[in-house]
């Protein structure tokens, strides 16, 4: 039994002579390999004396094959890889600046109001859960049996990711996901505006799932 041998392989770009980080070094007959580190060096340990076939490859470069013979305790090899002719073309990303703000970008808003709202208010005038539970993609989840607290889940996300607004202003200081909607009667509301999907850019992290805006009735004297 001979001594264990450590093989060190340095991989460079042939054109720029720069180290290639993450290049693959593989010895097929032993089915072992490694990848190069930040210095472009890959190390394979516990080899025995002999001749081995070695494959060096990297994305966008031609695969290199070589036969090496090792007999002492440590060996270092350096390989230069050529760029492949089938490498990916350069990707150019262009952007155009405009004066349009994010608040002007159209967003799909669902509307509940009129006769539908009045019908649901008559069926359950104590809270808004009856109004919202029949809307697609919205689930009313009871979070407390003792107090009857419920949260609004949009598209399966947790209730804390649904923002509740009243006339465009956050209810409960923006933490409505963990509080009850029992205290919100639908009798003094004229309509519901529902956005399903993330609008956190405009309304903060509480609106990752979406938001429900409750518009109050306006009385004129």
From TrEMBL:
Family annotation (SUPFAM superfamilies): Carboxypeptidase regulatory domain-like (SSF49464), Porins (SSF56935)
PANTHER family associated with the record: HEMOGLOBIN AND HEMOGLOBIN-HAPTOGLOBIN-BINDING PROTEIN 1-RELATED (PTHR30069:SF29), TONB-DEPENDENT OUTER MEMBRANE RECEPTOR (PTHR30069)
Pfam short name (any one): CarbopepD_reg_2
Family label: Belongs to the TonB-dependent receptor family.
Membrane topology: Multi-pass membrane protein
Location of the TonB-dependent receptor plug domain: 103-210
Protein source organism: Echinicola rosea
InterPro entries: CarboxyPept-like_regulatory, Plug_dom, Plug_dom_sf, TonB-dep_rcpt-like
UniProt keyword list: Cell outer membrane, Membrane, Signal, Transmembrane, Transmembrane beta strand, Transport
Domain of life: Bacteria
Major localization listed first in the record, in broad terms: membrane
Protein name in the entry: TonB-dependent receptor plug domain-containing protein
Subcellular location: Cell outer membrane
